[in-house]
Structure formats: C-alpha cells, structure tokens
C-alpha cells in the first residue's frame, strides 16, 4: 500500500492506495477522518473545514470508492488493481481524487441519462447524481494509459478556530 502525506503552507496533501474491495471501506473512512484538520497536530496552518462540508466530502469518498470497486473494476478476475485516493486540503476548498483502471465513460452524458431514468422505486443509480449535486466541480477523465480520475471539489468558508 502506497501512502504519502505532505504538509506545508496552506496545503495538506495525502495519497493512499487501497485494495479494490468493499470490505475495507471502514479503513478508507478511518484514513480519511485522520486527515480532518481538527485532528492535525499543527493547527497553525490548517483550514478549519465546517463539519457539514467534511461529511459531504466523506459521502463523496464512499460513492467514488464504491463505484470504482463495483463498476470500474468489476471485470477483473485476477490481480485487481488498487483504488488510489488523494485528498488535498486548501484554505478554502477540498479536492478529492479517486483513480481507477476501469473503462472510461462520459460523466455528463451518464448524469443526463441517470436523471431521466431514476425513479423513486429504484434502489441504485443515484450515486453519480448525488456526487454532482454536492460538488462544486465534478469530473471523470482518463488521465493516463488505463487510468481514470474522478475529481470532486468542494468549496467552503473556513471556520474560526476556537481555543
């Protein structure tokens, strides 16, 4: 497992590779929660992200990771590639990137279809719609041979630190 964390200035970058397995979702969430600025030892630089925004980003992580495992990596029988996740915390927004090695698709076309197809009785199919509604910017693009990147950006007003 690759894990990297860089601290400095008004930017905090963390990257980690996780096995493509829904059984480790709790580990993914524990890793993400460990990045919450309120848990950082060096609070002099860290942005103070509102709890609601953090929870929305956490939900986006769950949706993105789950989609990578269930859909992008579903056709792998052996040597299932890992899901790589990167979180970048900046002074006024959070960037979440999730890389998979599945077949690329046009996110905007898929979203348009899903909005038309989803009804109240359907159990699934709302994840991308939810991501789109929560994100200030959402994209899914092929980035290099065989890899795709889901980018979720969420802006926020930094909270005042209480001492």
UniProtKB/TrEMBL annotation:
One of its GO terms (molecular function) is protein serine/threonine kinase activity. It holds the Pfam family HATPase_c_2. Keywords: Kinase, Serine/threonine-protein kinase, Transferase. Gene3D superfamilies: Histidine kinase-like ATPase, C-terminal domain (3.30.565.10). The keyword Kinase applies. The keyword Transferase applies. Residues 49-153 form the Histidine kinase/HSP90-like ATPase domain. It comes from the Bacteria. PANTHER family: ANTI-SIGMA-F FACTOR RSBW, ANTI-SIGMA-F FACTOR RSBW-RELATED. This is Anti-sigma regulatory factor. It comes from Merismopedia glauca CCAP 1448/3.
